[in-house]
Specification:
CATH class of the largest domain: Alpha Beta
Shape: globular
Strand content: 15-25%
Radius of gyration: 24 Å
Number of strands: 21
Strand order of the largest sheet: 4-5-1-11-10-12
CATH superfamily of the largest domain: HUPs
Largest sheet: 6 strands, antiparallel
Low-confidence stretches: none
Oligomer: single chain
Length: 563
């Protein structure tokens, strides 16, 4: 996972010293400013910092690099052969080999063969040969990038369809455009900061950046009617995992013991053993409190797939110590994101210490298949579908944000095969009647979420106890005492008098509980602008379906109580 940062001056030929820091009689340069501001996200790319400044054209572009593909050749910013097109990108382009082949097919006979410097390099090459429209239509992966065409004075910005990779933008008082992977790089300079929306792009001048939607598949606007084909569903997910396994550095997988991460680890193991032989063992990792319910199942999966498995334990007190650090890195005050991110944050630190640079994870399945327990109370198929669409559109506020930023905090890349664009489009084209919870056929009487996903992988992928295990949300599965204690701890920092004035103090996203109020206080200390607060969206179940407003799965009526 990398970090990108850019500043494009509105008027390069006028005095822009107002945005620069003065120390005594000296004013820093734009280069120094960019290096300093981008340094606030240097944790995302600890391997290399690349910077290009062009004073005459009035811009600076920076990339903080985590080397995963093209380790020796992929340092950015990328510059075209004639020096007129520049690119900084964050993410992985999973079809870069096919894109490179198309570029070579378009070359004249006398042209030198195009060899991509890394997966992201094809963005620049494809733009030069085929233009913006073909680039956006063809690219597949998780990405956020900034490309500048000096010849045409055109800025191209784009973010992947689901928002797996973050990107923010804003303008300073002089109208200069600022872009970064994390909001903390902009908050000091930009009075208004916005999320660059998923599935959007911008191509135009450096003035009045207005993103336009390029990703709007039919399932976002219509109720689908395609029946499920289990063989096809299984093949599509296997293809997605295969595409996500391109990697030039040590890799592993997160393994909570739930259905989603367990399936990804199982499929990856089968693929890697075809490549490297039956002795290959995938490195897998679980996290939780001593006695946490997930450990029993993660060990069961690890034994079943014969992975090289590590259990990582943390204490409640240790987790509480990281609330402030976690809010700083994730840039949110959403209750469920804070609860979930701290265990992941602690797990990532251990994984990185073992030399791993990339991990697979199971995020996204619950949004596609309606896996959260409150989906059991969906009143009808149409409402079920519309709710899954809403959850997918909002993933960049919650699970994608948590997964990306809590791992990038330690310089680790996380990949999410369930959110492969082609797989998302296939699953969301399945009629909601098939994706809704069903009763398992052979003797089970309770309704089971993600039923078709379980059925598709019923043969020799997972132990039955895991395959048919009820959804346990991550912050619950690490140990029930974690949620109970962090809720009580956060609330203890807020007085009744302060909470009574919550609406007056926080008119945007007014905290509904003392726990939420405490997280919001910590957030405001680091991100004081109202525009920063507006970048957060709270994850809340459907209260109008009769669901508890608390995001914990344990609060839903269908949750099977544990001792």
């Amino acid at each position: 996972m990398c970090g990108i940062f850019s500043v494009f001056l509105k008027h390069p030929d006028i005095d822009n010293s107002s945005i620069l820091r003065r120390s005594g009689n000296r004013t820093e340069s734009l280069r120094e400013l960019a290096f300093r501001q981008s340094g606030k996200q240097r944790h995302r790319g600890p391997d290399h910092t690349g910077l290009v400044e062009d004073k005459s054209a009035g811009f600076v572009m920076v990339q903080e690099r985590l080397c995963v593909l093209g380790v020796k050749t992929g340092s950015q910013p990328f510059v075209s052969r004639d020096g007129t097109v520049l690119l900084v990108a964050n993410g992985e382009i999973y079809n870069y080999r096919q894109m490179a082949k198309e570029v070579n097919n378009a070359l004249d006979v006398e042209d030198e063969l195009y060899i991509p410097r890394s997966d992201c390099d094809v963005i620049l090459a494809f733009y030069e040969h085929f233009g913006v429209a073909e680039l956006i239509k063809t690219i597949r992966g998780m990405f956020a990038f900034v490309l500048y065409d000096k010849k045409n004075d055109r800025l191209l910005m784009a973010r992947d369809p689901i928002g797996i990779i973050p990107m923010y933008y804003g303008t300073d008082h002089a109208g200069n455009v600022w872009i970064a992977s994390e909001m903390k790089c902009l908050v000091e300079k930009c009075p208004e900061i916005k999320i660059f929306p998923p599935g959007h792009m911008y191509y135009g001048s450096r003035r009045n950046v207005e993103p336009k939607q390029y990703y709007e598949p039919h399932w976002m606007v219509d109720i689908p009617h395609m029946p499920v084909e289990l063989d096809k569903l299984r093949a599509r997910l296997e293809d997605a995992v295969l595409s996500h396994l391109q990697c030039d550095v040590p890799m592993g997988a997160l393994l909570s013991g739930g259905l989603d991460s367990s399936l990804i680890a199982s499929i990856a193991t089968k693929i890697m053993r075809k490549r490297h032989g039956q002795d290959y063992r995938l490195k897998t990792y679980s996290v939780g409190l001593v006695g946490g319910p997930d450990f029993e199942y993660s060990r069961m999966v690890a034994e079943f797939i014969d992975s090289d498995h590590t259990d990582v334990y943390f204490t409640v007190d240790e987790g509480l110590n990281y609330i402030r650090d976690l809010i700083f890195h994730t840039e949110t005050y959403d209750i469920t994101t804070v609860r979930c991110s701290i265990p992941m944050f602690l797990l990532t630190r251990l994984i990185k210490s073992e030399g791993i640079k990339m991990v697979l994870s199971g995020e996204g399945a619950d949004e596609l298949f309606g896996g959260y327990l409150y989906f059991h109370q969906a009143p009808n198929p149409s409402e079920f579908h519309l709710e899954t669409v809403m959850r997918i559109k909002n993933l960049h506020y919650s699970d994608c944000l948590r997964a990306n930023k809590s791992t990038a905090a330690w310089g680790l890349e996380l990949r999410v095969p369930f959110l492969d664009t082609d797989f998302v489009n296939y699953v969301m084209s399945i009629r909601p009647e098939d994706r809704m919870p069903r009763t398992k056929r052979n003797g089970r009487v309770h309704s089971m979420e993600k039923y078709i996903l379980r059925e598709a992988f019923a043969e020799n992928y997972l132990p039955d106890a895991v395959l048919w295990r009820q959804k346990e949300q991550f912050s619950d599965g690490v140990g029930y005492n974690w949620i109970d204690t962090i809720t009580e701890y956060a609330a203890s920092h807020v007085s009744d008098a302060d909470f009574a004035e919550a609406a007056e103090k926080f008119p945007i996203n007014t905290p509904p509980t003392k726990e939420a109020y405490y997280y919001r206080q910590v957030f405001e200390e680091m991100f004081p602008h109202q525009s920063c607060a507006a970048t957060v969206k709270q994850w809340v179940p459907r209260i109008d379906w009769g669901c508890s407003a608390d995001p914990s799965g344990r609060k839903q009526d269908v949750h099977i109580k544990k001792n």
